[in-house]
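User: Some background: our group keeps a shared notebook of sequences we're curious about, and every so often someone picks one and asks for a predicted structure to add to the entry. Today it's my turn. The entry only has the sequence so far, pasted here. Could you supply the structure so I can complete it?
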Amino acid sequence: MDYSFILQDSQKSQILARILAHLMGDGCVTNKYFAYYNKEEFLLEKFERDLCTLFGKLHIIKGQVNSGTFFRMICNKDIRLFFLSIVDNFKSNYLRLPLFINSKELQKEFLKSFYDDEGCVALRIFTKTGEIKRNLTLSSNSLFLLQEIKEILKLNFNITSNRIIKSLRKRNGREFVNYVLSITGKSNFERFRDLIGFYHPSKIERLNKMISSYIRK
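Assistant: Of course. Here's the predicted structure to add to the notebook entry:
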């Protein structure tokens, strides 16, 4: 089936942007299926609703992996090939922003969902000094994708981010390169909250708490 009509509809394109962001974040697209993994049930249910809104009734396999993370898996060749016509490589090292995500509204929906998966809101208080450290970070194995996001944040949302940091992660005895884009500063946090934000309930709460921590009694 030809699903290219979705790209001609602004509302449907926003839904598609969210779906692809999740598949590029905590999901995967293989030669047999595509799936989304998360511990937050709200995000899984939203992903499922978005899929059904675009593609109608689907057979969605629900399950849980050994780590306790839940997933939604779909074995549908037509939809899978449609996704691959937009994102030709879903491997984490080679991720790129899909070309159709070229407007502020589409970029907002993509970033919101990608930050739901790969973003971290960190508010730390050091007990010895009383110093407060605040950070909103985004991690990816794709340096190119983070560079694209950094530019979009600045140009379209007036959010200044810091230099992208390269780090090494170890998993199962192997080292993996990871990159981190961080946002600091109250005004940047407020613009992120007001112009992009999260769908993830606990991240919404943590971001509001982090911004409120600037208020001195």
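Suggested note for the entry: The domain at 4-92 is CATH 3.10.28.10 (Endonuclease I-creI). The radius of gyration is 18 Å.
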